[in-house]
Amino acid sequence: MPTDTSALDLILRADPALVGIVRLSLLVSLSAVVLAALIGIPLGALIALTRFPGRNGAIVLLNALMGLPPVVVGLLVYLMLSRSGPLGSWGILFTPQAMIIAQSILVMPIVAALARQTIEDLWEEYRDELAALNVGPVRRIFTLIYDARFSLLTALLAGFGRAAAEVGAVIIVGGNIDGFTRTMTTAIALETSKGDLPLAIGLGMVLISLVIVVNALAWGARRASERYAG
Q: What residue numbers bound the domain in which 105 lies?
């Protein structure tokens, strides 16, 4: 049977190994995006709405961190979580929790930078109106975050796409352990090197499908934002 047919067969019959890898990948990536959003959106809003010394430098740094090399992040998280590291007592190295931390660090600058730009643009548009209503700083942040919810959803989807496609950091901190920390990207790399092409191709098909779905959702969020603004 051709390898592509075998790969499709694995998907259609919901092969347990493939389903387990996909489930873990989604769990890790979605958890990382949620954690990144809890930190990145308020941080982006804070930078957008406040003026402080070094603000321009902070914006440049935040934008630069969007391109963090995954292997460097993986190395840093590994050093922090190793037995001799400052967080070694947590005992979570080579676990899904370590992978979530690594992916969160990669995704958070993306979410924060996009949130900062989106909220700053809205602030320029609504500054006079919010000032006239005497809206306080905290309420101002929540008001603008709510108004920018569709655009922020696009930022979160972009972060999820980065997390789902990441391979370097999760291999380093997760160890690519079969049935425990093996994600779609790490499994594709491993199975290809082993010559097990049906599983690698099957996972690749699922990953590409996820990318298409994420982009479709991002497009839909932008359309919804345009309709809401109009």
A: 3-229
pLDDT digits over 15-51, tens only? 898 999 999 999 999 999 999 999 999 999 999 988 8
Total number of domains constituting the chain: 1
Nearest to 160 by CA among 17, 5, 30: 30
CATH number of the domain to which 155 belongs: 1.10.3720.10
Q: Is the pLDDT of residue 2 over 60?
A: no
Q: Measuring CA to CA, which residue among 195, 196, 202, 175 is closest to residue 186?
A: 175
